[in-house]
DNA sequence: GGTAAACGTTGACAAATGTTAACGGAATTA
DNA sequence: TAATTCCGTTAACATTTGTCAACGTTTACC
């Protein structure tokens, strides 16, 4: 399992990992399997782990007063499931993260992530690049939300993240877009006529 | 002008600045005054500068097919105006940034920001913390956009960024929230009755 | 293999939001 | 100071989106 992570890290950084660093990574990242709907994080908990997804699919969501779920992130292989704010600031999270499919992941704690950030230059670099990418994607999403119609947002997710549509049901996609599943269904039936 | 920036940096980092570092910062950050509506950045340009606002107000926005503006960021004193993606990746920006009020700012180039990141530990730390804060705020905004009504989003901006309401007209606030100025006006008149 | 849950869709109706137009007053500027 | 633009609001109406209910199908699970 760790090979996949090593490969990922190497691909995303300029400096190669030494053998010792590879060993450290293997020790620090602990494999865990999540069954369907098993939680990585629940609301009001502090996010203890950052999870690198080896295989499977997870989702992050908030739950409103009426018990409705609102999807903030969808995560597939070779990406991270974590509430960065809670993980970084050690504050209680507003979100849930759970497995949508049976999922294999590698978990790292906050303490260990600090340790490796101070020890392995490639990891510091990686973390920084990931945080940036995350922020870029979020601004893009905010801009979509305030400037595009539901249909245009759906078009965009189809182009930007086609794999989401293959792996998650439509009510999850609708929630991610900030609309109801009925509205998404209508958009799709209109587009089918064209 | 630089004193305000020095104070800001010191307040946001754990290690104090040396006299030499203070001198370097004074050289690297160049003051510039923006008249009302003067651009810091236009669409399709690469964002050459990150601007620290000493006094004034700026806004970042996209412009859609119909020429309508959609506000992505509002920036007041002691914060930054910059398209982080364009600035970091050297890619053409999708956004405009201009001064809403007459604004005094300190500008730094990408090249100089790399230089100081490598030289001044406090600046590396600051940059990292700012990027994190930015991402946290963006996720919060995405979550608001997909899970709250227009009225609830308005309530939230009143609590979170009350100064925006004092410094920007309501059509700007409406755009930031992703609604029209008429809808915001109706929300306000309803709330006034309560 | 049978039962229950999840999924995607559709219809009727309600609610929220957008569009267009108009207005008075405030702020800006020539 | 006069003219003009900007601002915030309101009204009437159109459009989009949500809500509730129902349905057949697929999928998951015991």
**Largest beta-sheet characterization of chain A:** 4 strands, antiparallel
What is the top-level CATH class of the domain at 2-119 in chain A? Mainly Beta
> At the fourth CATH level, what is the homologous superfamily of the domain at 2-119 in chain A?
Jelly Rolls
Mean pLDDT of chain A: 95
Number of strands of chain A: 8
Question: How much is the radius of gyration of chain A in Å?
Answer: 18 Å
This entry's quaternary arrangement is: homodimer
Structural category of chain A is: alpha+beta
Secondary structure topology:
2 copies of one chain form a homodimer.
Chain A: H1 2-11, H2 19-28, E1 30-34, E2 39-41, E3 49-55, E4 58-63, E5 69-75, E6 80-81, H3 84-89, E7 96-99, E8 103-109, H4 110-119, H5 121-147, H6 150-160, H7 162-167, H8 170-177, H9 181-193
Antiparallel strand pairs in A: 1-8, 2-7, 3-6, 3-8, 4-5, 4-7
Helix pairs in contact in A: 4-5, 8-9
Chain A binds a DNA duplex (30 and 30 nucleotides) through helix 9.
Description:
Two copies of one chain form a homodimer. The first copy, chain A, is α+β, with helices and mostly antiparallel strands and 194 residues long. Chain A has a domain of 118 residues: Jelly Rolls. In chain A, 52% of the residues lie in helices and 21% in strands. The first copy, chain A, is built from nine helices and eight strands. In chain A, β4 and β5 form a beta hairpin. The model of chain A has no long low-confidence stretch (mean pLDDT 95). Chain A binds a DNA duplex (30 and 30 nucleotides) through α9. Chains A, B: InterPro entries: cNMP-bd_dom_sf (IPR018490), RmlC-like_jellyroll (IPR014710). Chains A, B: This is Crp/Fnr family transcriptional regulator.
């Amino acid at each position: 399992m760790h090979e996949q992570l090593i490969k990922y890290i190497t691909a995303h950084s300029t400096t190669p990992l030494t053998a010792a660093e590879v060993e450290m990574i293997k020790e620090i990242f602990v494999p865990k399997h999540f069954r369907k709907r098993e939680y990585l994080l629940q609301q009001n908990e502090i996010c203890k782990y950052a999870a690198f997804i080896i295989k499977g699919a997870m989702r992050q969501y908030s739950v409103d007063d009426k018990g409705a779920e609102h999807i903030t992130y969808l995560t597939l292989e070779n990406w991270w499931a974590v509430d960065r704010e809670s993980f970084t600031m050690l504050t209680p999270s507003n979100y849930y993260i759970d497995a949508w499919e049976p999922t294999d992941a590698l978990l790292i704690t906050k303490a260990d992530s600090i340790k490796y950030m101070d020890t392995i230059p490639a990891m510091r670099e990686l973390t920084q690049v990931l945080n940036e990418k995350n922020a870029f994607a979020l601004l893009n999403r905010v801009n979509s939300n305030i400037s595009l119609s539901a249909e245009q947002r759906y078009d965009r997710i189809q182009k930007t993240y086609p794999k989401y549509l293959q792996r998650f049901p439509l009510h999850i996609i609708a929630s991610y877009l900030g609309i109801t599943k009925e509205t998404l269904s209508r958009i799709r039936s209109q587009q089918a006529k064209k």
